[in-house]
Amino acid sequence: MSMYVIVSIAILVTMTLALARALKGPSVYDRVLAVNMFGTKTVLLLAVVAFFYGRPDFLDLALAYALINFVGILAVLEFFQSQRNDDEEQAKEQEE
Amino acid sequence: MLEQVLYVLSWIMLTVGGFFVLVGGIGALRLPNFYTRMHAASVTDTIATFLVLGGLLLQAGLTIATVKLIAILVFLLLTGPTASYALANAALLSGVKSNATFRKVNGKGSKSGAGQETSVNQETDASQETSASQENNEEQSK
């Protein structure tokens, strides 16, 4: 029983640290990294909580969250990359 | 007997998994540059996930929860490195630099350690090297 509490507290502390890095992060990639880490830790926390409360239904939520998290991170990265490419093109046009 | 062994084993796996989660979190907050922080986050993505979900697997026995846990584990182990690669690629292409580089001034490279220098050490090294090069320039001008 108590080991679930230990792991839950460890995961919660790490989620707090990841949020601190997301707020602090100098570049946008630090923030994306921290949010990705936060999402992965959420999946782990959901799995542990499912066993802590004895409700295996929560595992479905964890699986869905893992899927959404992965796609979301890739989408955010693609967004920033295309935004940067647009900026470079605009800079070239202005130079010309 | 077997149940007790499995119980102790899952307890150990969960606790060690929690330890690695904490280590990764502290590293992601405190390490000096982006790529080292990504390394710390990858620790929690791989071994901590494996240990925590493995400990839960030993607790679950043979139920439908086992199948779901294995699905989550496989999916996380597949997507974690993929997301890390995409992130590192995007950061590298946009010019995020790690400050762990070696500079050579006047052909005398400062080979100290195996890439274990901190950024502070490198700054002092670089300043010493620049002062050395200035001295060389003064000698040449004389």
Automatic annotation (TrEMBL), chain B:
Please note every region of biased composition (Polar residues).
113-135
Coiled coil region boundaries? none
MF terms (GO), sorted A to Z: sodium:proton antiporter activity
TM stretches of this protein = 6-31
List the keywords (alphabetical).
Membrane, Transmembrane, Transmembrane helix
Where are the stretches annotated Disordered? Answer: 104-142
Q: What is this protein called?
A: Monovalent cation/H(+) antiporter subunit G
Judging by the UniProt lineage, the source's domain of life is: Bacteria
